[in-house]
Amino acid sequence: MQQWAQAKSGFNKSITGRLRRRSVQAVWGVFGSGVLLVGCAESVQNTQVVKPSLAPSNLAVTSTAVVYGQAPRAVPEAARAAVVSAREAMQRRQWEALPGYAEQARDDHELGGYPMYWYLRQLLNDATQPVPTQQIYAFLQQNKNPYLENRLKSDWILASAKQGDFDTVRRIGTVASRTSEVDCAILQARFLGTGQVSAAQALAVFKPGNACWSMLGQLTGANVITHEHLEPLLRDAVEYDSKDSARRYAALAFSPAGLSSYDALMANPMGWLATQSGSATGELQQLRALAFSRLARQDRDGGAAFLEAQGNTLLNERNRQWAWTQFGLVAALNLEARADGWYRKAGEGFRLSDYNHAWRTRMALRQPTIDWKWVEQTIRMMGADQQKEPVWVYWYGRARAGQGDNSGAASAWQSILYDHGFYGQLATEALGRKIVVPPQPAEPSAAEINKIMTHEGLQRAIALFRLGWRPEAVGEWNFAIRGMNDRELMAAAEWALREQVYDRTINTSMLTKNDFNFRQRYLAPFEGRVSQQARAVGVDPAWVYGLIRQESRFVTVARSSVGAAGLMQVMPGTAQLVARKLGLSYSAANAHDFDTNTLLGTSYLKMILDDLNGSEVLATAGYNAGPNRAKRWRDASDHSLEGAIFAETIPFTETRLYVKYVISNATWYRAAFTGRPQSIVEQLGQVRP
Which Pfam families does the entry mention (predicted)? Predict the structure, then answer.
């Protein structure tokens, strides 16, 4: 262990010492072959292109087989400059300039396909323009980049589906790497062609989106998707407060009169329910159940009293049971102890969403005296797949142990030791063991790394990373590693590490099935500078590394959708606040500066830690969701909670997952840095109000 930690410390220094930043002119290229048929827009349109058959031989699905080529070779400077200029033109929406740049970029065997791809993608996205079929044919015939081929076919499928041209969608066929939208368009096209699409197939790919809503509407109109299929989707959307999706499901599920009632009950559930009396069946029964779900969000006290008084009259047994879980869920999300009582009142034997099943178990765990038999019952009520998730296997084991069945508990915990995350670590300790870094596989050899560096897709991805074009680079990289075995994945991760593309190092190494390279998965870059800053402000470096790994994957230029920036994803307002407290001047221009970002991030972490009585669990939650929320969640209980129970019952899904990831990460980093066995249970501690 200690040797592994020492090797880890020295490894990053040796790699960094060998790295050098390359200018655009010095970027090495991928193996070359073929010339892309591109030119100015007019010349492409006037080129006599023989329209090929859209048979599978011409538009075949890109294989997932790993293909290797030649060692990297230089790219002509002028060709690469044309690609760079094309991207700048694309960002300025100067679409007419792209075909010209595509012609100039034709000798860039790595990235020369991008200018024309950007141009064709824009034409496909422009609903006022016809689909540029001939230009697409030309591109697909000459393009040597399977990733761009896959992307263009996907764009073509969606554009054709949007225009109602499902004949073309069928002729294009499937693509290698698809989104749910593309899957939905393909299924709708298949249904219109052969009628051979089942409800199960459609629901397996459906996610709210234009193409999927179109497919769902088509299949509902044809009675392939029925009210029985729509009911759980509608209920789950109302339960999750996804109003837009719920309204669209309702429009498919209900008659015009029923939809009018739905709109009324969503606006004023108690007012609408007050107009109801006697028993009901069918659509009206469903509407009443939804009204109680909506009422739970608006008035838990009055709504629960009304359900107690009128539920037997207005609802059938299963809808009454479901209605009680709606009050249980809203109370659970507010961490109210009474949620457990409402869940118990609901009983069992009816359909419940995975989300609500989980909260029923979580609230059973938050009780002052845990009823382990009830915890076990709530887990057994889950579907088979949900029961197999490490989180519920672990708590099932705890429930068996709590009832004296140590053998059953050990069997459950043993079954999730494959999971190196939060619950695998907890299971390890529950079995009486400490957490140590597992035996490491043989490191990627020079031959394996040299071979992976001949992979044309990875060469393109590295070229894009060197240009700083992360969106394109990540797409190329992820497409390239499909189908790789463990040794290839570790070699690819090693190449990413040498290029300082740390997020791809981690994410690629995390895909291995049997060989687990923790030096890659839990890398600690920046030559001790993070640890030095952490110690300077008085926080554990392992915790800081665990947090950065989750926040940014060590991408210094990372920026979230809400404006959090840099390694430690510091929010602009937080940065200003901490800078003032430290007596520093701060400018948003410095948000991604390593020293500035780590100083502000670690200082803020220390402030939260001190404010929350030294609890890393609370401080981690506070770093993600704000310290005041962490305090409210802590004070919602009138008794001490195990740190693991507190973490599992954080109401915000993002924060709940974040805390578990960070604490798990920190445990591995401590094991690596110290060379000693670790305890995640001790790290979690107790959370006291």
Answer: SLT, SLT_L
Residue 389 structure tokens: 């998730």
Q: What is the dihedral of CA 653, 656, 661, 666, to 10 degrees?
A: 160
What are the structure tokens assigned to 682, written together? 């001790």
Residue 91 and residue 111 in contact, taking contact as beta carbons nearer than 8 Å: no
pLDDT value at residue 330: 99
Widest CA span of the chain, in angstroms? 80
Rg of the chain taking only CA atoms, in angstroms: 28
Main-chain phi, psi angles of 526, to 5 degrees: 75, 25
What residues pair up with 570 in beta bridges, in sequence order? 565
- Reduce the DSSP state of residue 263 to 3 states and report it: helix
Q: Write the CA distances from 68 to 29, 30, 31, 72, 402, integer angstroms.
A: 14, 11, 10, 11, 55
- Secondary element (H or E) of residue 211: helix 210-221
Q: Which pLDDT value is given to residue 565?
A: 85
Question: Could you identify the residue written with the tokens 């034709």?
Answer: 106
Helix or strand (DSSP H, E) at 641: strand 641-642
Which regions of the chain carry the CATH code 1.10.530.10? 529-687
Residue type (1 letter), 357: H
Residues 6+ apart with CB under 8 A from 576: 586
**Which residues share a beta bridge with 678?**
435
**Residue 646 · residue 633 · CB < 8 Å:** yes
pLDDT tens figures, 227-250:
999 999 999 999 999 999 999 999
Q: Write out the DSSP string of 388-416.
A: TSHHHHHHHHHHHHHTT-HHHHHHHHHTT
pLDDT of residue 419: 97
> Identity (one letter) of the amino acid at 384?
A
Helix (H) or strand (E) holding 73: strand 73-74
C-alpha torsion sign, points 249, 250, 256, 260: negative
Q: What is the pLDDT of residue 63?
A: 56
* Spatial separation of the C-alpha atoms in residues 253 and 642, rounded to whole Å: 44
Contact 160, 131 (CB under 8 A): yes
Q: Provide the CATH number for the domain formed by 529-687 in this structure.
A: 1.10.530.10
Measured in whole angstroms, how far is the alpha carbon of residue 291 from the centre of its chain? 32
Q: Give dist(CA 453, CA 445) in Å, integer.
A: 12
Cα 274 from Cα 255, distance rounded (Å): 21
Residue 245: count other Cβ atoms within 10 Å of its Cβ. 17
Helical residues (DSSP H) of 510-615, grouped into ranges: 518-521, 529-537, 541-551, 572-582, 594-611
Q: What is the pLDDT of residue 587?
A: 86
Q: Tell me what pLDDT residue 40 has.
A: 33
Helix, strand, coil content of the chain in percent (nearest 5): 65, 0, 35
| pLDDT at residue 494, rounded to an integer | 98
Helices (H), 481-522: 486-498, 502-509, 518-521
Give CA–CA dist 173/154, Å, rounded.
Answer: 10
- Taking a C-beta distance cutoff of 8 angstroms, is the pair 645, 391 a contact? no
Nearest to 605 by CA among 561, 557, 632, 568: 568
C-alpha torsion angle, residues 617, 619, 620, 622 (rounded to 10): 120
Give the whole-angstrom CA distance, residue 366 versus residue 642. 9
